[in-house]
Design brief:
- This protein has 15 helices and no strands.
- The protein has 345 residues and is an all-alpha fold.
Length: 345
């Protein structure tokens, strides 16, 4: 009778108390509609989709990096011939030419293989040889007449010129070839200068081309003046001394080959000596030296001039080296006077 009258949830019912497990009672609203909580728990697609599919975020990151690197990838790499001046795709600060060394390429400079440079040089040298050979061939036709004219001119006026002597069979022919070769050199020199300019032109800056075009014609003119100076002044003085320094003691017999060796050597050397003013002017214009420094060191230059004169114009009488050395000193000092007069210190 007591079990039938026991109400629900009575602590006397052991099965019901075991099922509840001491949990707090659930309200009727929560117990009646569990769909909302179970829908959230059972369908996690919305949150897991973002976590499981990172493609959208990675694409955005890649696009952003692409947009930042895009201009650098399309930008051409600038070089100065020594290395990269502006980096490619680098975030570091690019340095200007001054920091790399300030070296820039001439406007017409082009990279060429070494074999092409050698081939071009050989072709241009062949053109010079062609002109020089043509001048030599023409000179051979009138070499005998040229020998007679030069022999008469190198001896001073009023002196009975001694006849030339030949001491070995080929001496006359070798002398003709030397005189003709001198004419060939005079004809080939302007072509040599022009071919050198064409060869170096792509590697020259505009101001270097200006210096070259101004210096080379001046050099040719100075060489011509030096040859005329030797032919009209130095050689007559030298042979006048040779003719009379042994007068009364011996009769001098001039050998044809050795006499023309001296004439050609002295003429060619004085053509080089007359380049001294040009060398000094170019050195000062390019900032290599100053007029004041050259004037302070003049004694060293005088000694060097006499040393070169005795080295290249060997003469046992020492007359030829002395004349050449004095000529070099006069050219040096005259150039310094002109530089002081124009105000270049």
């Amino acid at each position: 009778m007591s079990e039938e009258s026991a109400p629900d949830g009575d602590p006397g019912d052991p099965d019901e108390s075991r099922d509840t497990g001491g949990e707090p009672p659930v309200s009727d609203a929560d117990a009646a509609d569990p769909g909302e909580s179970t829908e959230d728990a059972a369908d996690p697609g919305e949150s897991t989709e973002d976590a499981a599919d990172p493609g959208e975020s990675t694409e955005d990151a890649a696009d952003s990096s692409e947009s930042s690197d895009g201009p650098d990838q399309n930008r051409p790499v600038e070089t100065d011939g020594e290395g990269v001046v502006s980096g490619h795709g680098s975030s570091e600060t690019s340095f200007p030419d001054d920091d790399v060394g300030g070296i820039s390429t001439p406007p017409d400079d082009e990279e060429m293989p070494l074999a092409d440079h050698i081939e071009e040089m050989i072709l241009r040298f062949a053109v010079v040889l062609l002109f020089a050979s043509a001048g030599t061939a023409i000179g051979l036709l009138w070499a005998s007449d040229a020998i007679s004219i030069i022999w008469a001119d190198v001896f001073p006026a009023g002196v009975n010129e001694p006849p030339p002597h030949i001491y070995h069979p080929l001496e006359l022919w070798l002398t003709r070839i030397k005189v003709a070769a001198l004419l060939g050199i005079m004809v080939g020199l302007p072509m040599f200068v022009y071919q050198c300019y064409l060869f170096m032109k792509p590697g020259l800056y505009p101001h270097e081309r200006k210096y070259y075009l101004a210096a080379v014609p001046t050099s040719v003119v100075l060489a011509g003046v030096g040859m005329l100076f030797s032919y009209l002044l130095v050689l007559p003085i030298l042979f006048y001394y040779f003719t009379f320094y042994a007068e009364g003691s011996a009769e001098i017999a001039y050998a044809l080959g050795e006499t023309f060796d001296l004439v050609i050597t002295l003429t060619a050397f004085l053509a080089i000596v007359f380049q001294i003013p040009l060398f000094i002017m170019l050195a000062i214009m390019m900032g290599v030296t100053t007029r004041r420094w050259l004037a302070e060191k003049r004694l060293y230059f005088w000694a060097a001039f006499f040393g070169l004169a005795f080295m290249f114009t060997f003469d046992p009488t020492a007359m030829a080296p002395v004349l050449v050395g004095i000529t070099m000193i006069l050219l040096f000092e005259g150039t310094l006077v002109v530089l002081k007069w124009v105000g270049r210190e």
